[in-house]
Amino acid sequence: MLSVIGIGPGSQAMMTMEAIEALQAAEIVVGYKTYTHLVKAFTGDKQVIKTGMCREIERCQAAIELAQAGHNVALISSGDAGIYGMAGLVLELVSKQKLDVEVRL
């Protein structure tokens, strides 16, 4: 499963409980390196895949491939994942590639 998670405006106190629970349940976390540091308290010793700026497609594709391989993956983005976040790109890639991946928003 691939959970696309919005981490809010940057403060852990402003994250939803659903986002925190999804991060804690994930085996692997994928995200922009700055955002991965913001959620470190919830990722523990999980595998975290970090990329730099302007690598959104690469992040999404990596998360999709890991989910296809059977991993529970959390892809993080700032704010609301569905608005200016990664959800649209993930859904577009899954659709274009005709993949059978469970995506949770």
UniProtKB/TrEMBL annotation:
<dbReference type="GO" id="GO:0032259">
    <property type="term" value="P:methylation"/>
</dbReference>
<dbReference type="Pfam" id="PF00590">
    <property type="entry name" value="TP_methylase"/>
</dbReference>
<keyword id="KW-0808">Transferase</keyword>
<dbReference type="InterPro" id="IPR051810">
    <property type="entry name" value="Precorrin_MeTrfase"/>
</dbReference>
<dbReference type="InterPro" id="IPR035996">
    <property type="entry name" value="4pyrrol_Methylase_sf"/>
</dbReference>
<dbReference type="InterPro" id="IPR014777">
    <property type="entry name" value="4pyrrole_Mease_sub1"/>
</dbReference>
<dbReference type="GO" id="GO:0008168">
    <property type="term" value="F:methyltransferase activity"/>
</dbReference>
<keyword id="KW-0489">Methyltransferase</keyword>
<protein>
    <submittedName>
        <fullName>Cobalt-precorrin-3B C(17)-methyltransferase</fullName>
    </submittedName>
</protein>
<dbReference type="InterPro" id="IPR000878">
    <property type="entry name" value="4pyrrol_Mease"/>
</dbReference>
<feature type="domain" description="Tetrapyrrole methylase">
    <location>
        <begin position="1"/>
        <end position="103"/>
    </location>
</feature>
